[in-house]
C-alpha cells in the first residue's frame, strides 16, 4: 500500500507557535498533496508537490518532500486558532494509480488562543 | 465559480430505501470523484469519472451506483444500504486535460453529504 502515515496523530500548540506534521509513504509517487479538513466538513486543498520538487511555499505553509526517504513534512508558521483542523497528506501514483489519491490517517491540530 | 456543491447536506434512510446524492461543479473540470469517509478515518476513493466515463471503480458494492449525466453533474444512487454504510460522502473534481495525466492536479472537494442508514 502506498498509504501515507502522518505523525503525530494529534498536536496541540499555542497560537503563534509553529506546527510541523510529517507524512511517510511506501511506494513511488507522482505527487503528494496536503489537505485540511474542519470537523465533519469537506477537504480544502493546501498544496501539491510533485515528485521532482523538494520544497514549496504557500503563505504560512512550507512543504518539503524527500523521495529517497519517502517522506514529506508540512510546516505551518505563526499558527492561529483558525488553523485548528485535521490535516491529511495524500499520495498519487503512476499508471493505473493516476487519479487515485491515497490519504494518510491525518494529524489533528489544535491551536489554543 | 470555484465551488463544488453537494446535496443534500444530511440524509437519513432505511435499508430498503432508494436515494440519490448529487454533486455539481461549474469549473469546467472533466474529472469527478466520489469518496467515502468514516468517522475519524481518512477519505477512501470510491469512483472516478473522466470525460463522463467511469475510469476507476475501487471495488465498491453494487448497492452504490454512480452516474455522470454531463460534465457538471455527478450522482451517487443508493439502494439497499447497510448501517455500516453510514458515513460522510465527499465529491471532488479536478481539471484533467485529455492527453494529460489524470489526477495530477488539484482536487476540489464539496462539503459532503452526511449519510445515516438505519
How does this structure look, described?
The complex is a heterodimer of chains A (113) and B (118). Chain A has no helices and eleven strands. Chain A has strands spanning 5-7, 10-14, 19-24, 31-37, 43-50, 55-58, 61-66, 71-76, 85-92, 101-103, 107-112. In chain A, the strands form two sheets. In chain A, strands 2, 4, 5, 9, 10 and 11 form a six-stranded mixed sheet that branches. A five-stranded antiparallel sheet of chain A has the order 1-3-8-7-6, with no helix packed on it. Chain A is globular, with a radius of gyration of 13 Å. Chain B is mostly beta strands and 118 residues long. Helices cover 0% and strands 54% of the residues of chain B. In chain B, the strands form two sheets. In chain B, strands 2, 4, 5, 6, 9, 10 and 11 form a seven-stranded mixed sheet that branches. In chain B, strands 1-3-8-7 form a four-stranded antiparallel sheet, with no helix packed on it. In chain B, strand 5 (44-50) and strand 6 form a beta hairpin. The model of chain B has no long low-confidence stretch (mean pLDDT 90). Chains A and B meet through strand 4, strand 5 and strand 10 of A and strand 5, strand 9 and strand 10 of B.
Overall mean pLDDT of chain A = 90
Structural class of chain A: mainly beta
Note the gap between the termini of chain B. 36 Å
Given the C-alpha coordinates, what overall shape of chain B results? globular
What's the main sheet of chain A like?
6 strands, mixed
Taking Cα atoms only, what radius of gyration of chain B do you get, to the nearest Å?
14 Å
Low-confidence stretches of chain A: none
SSE ordering of chain B: EEEEEEEEEEE
How large is the count of helical segments of chain B?
A: 0
| Percent of residues in helices of chain A | under 10%
Compute the number of strand runs of chain A.
11
Tell me about the biggest sheet of chain B? Answer: 7 strands, mixed
- Detail the poorly predicted runs of chain B: none
Instruction: Please state the average pLDDT score of chain B.
Output: 90
Q: Could you tell me the radius of gyration of chain A in angstroms?
A: 13 Å
Amino acid at each position: 500500500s502506498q498509504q501515507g502515515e502522518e505523525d503525530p496523530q494529534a498536536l496541540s500548540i499555542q497560537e503563534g507557535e509553529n506546527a510541523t506534521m510529517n507524512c511517510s509513504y511506501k511506494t513511488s509517487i507522482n505527487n503528494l498533496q496536503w489537505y485540511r479538513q474542519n470537523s465533519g466538513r469537506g477537504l480544502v486543498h493546501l498544496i501539491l508537490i510533485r515528485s521532482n520538487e523538494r520544497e514549496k511555499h504557500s503563505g504560512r505553509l512550507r512543504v518539503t518532500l524527500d523521495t529517497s526517504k519517502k517522506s514529506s513534512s508540512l510546516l505551518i508558521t505563526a499558527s492561529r486558532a483558525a488553523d485548528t483542523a485535521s490535516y491529511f497528506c495524500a499520495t498519487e501514483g503512476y499508471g493505473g494509480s493516476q487519479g487515485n489519491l491515497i490519504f494518510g490517517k491525518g494529524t489533528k491540530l489544535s491551536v489554543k488562543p | 465559480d470555484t465551488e463544488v456543491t453537494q446535496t443534500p447536506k444530511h440524509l437519513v434512510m432505511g435499508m430498503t430505501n432508494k436515494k440519490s446524492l448529487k454533486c455539481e461543479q461549474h469549473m469546467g473540470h472533466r474529472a469527478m470523484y466520489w469518496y467515502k469517509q468514516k468517522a475519524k478515518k481518512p477519505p477512501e476513493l470510491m469512483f472516478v469519472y473522466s470525460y463522463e466515463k467511469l475510469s476507476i471503480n475501487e471495488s465498491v458494492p453494487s448497492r452504490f451506483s454512480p452516474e455522470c449525466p454531463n460534465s457538471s453533474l455527478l450522482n451517487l444512487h443508493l439502494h439497499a444500504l447497510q448501517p455500516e454504510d453510514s458515513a460522510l460522502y465527499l465529491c471532488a473534481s479536478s481539471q484533467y486535460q485529455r492527453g494529460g495525466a489524470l489526477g495530477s492536479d488539484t482536487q476540489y472537494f464539496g462539503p459532503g453529504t452526511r449519510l445515516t442508514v438505519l
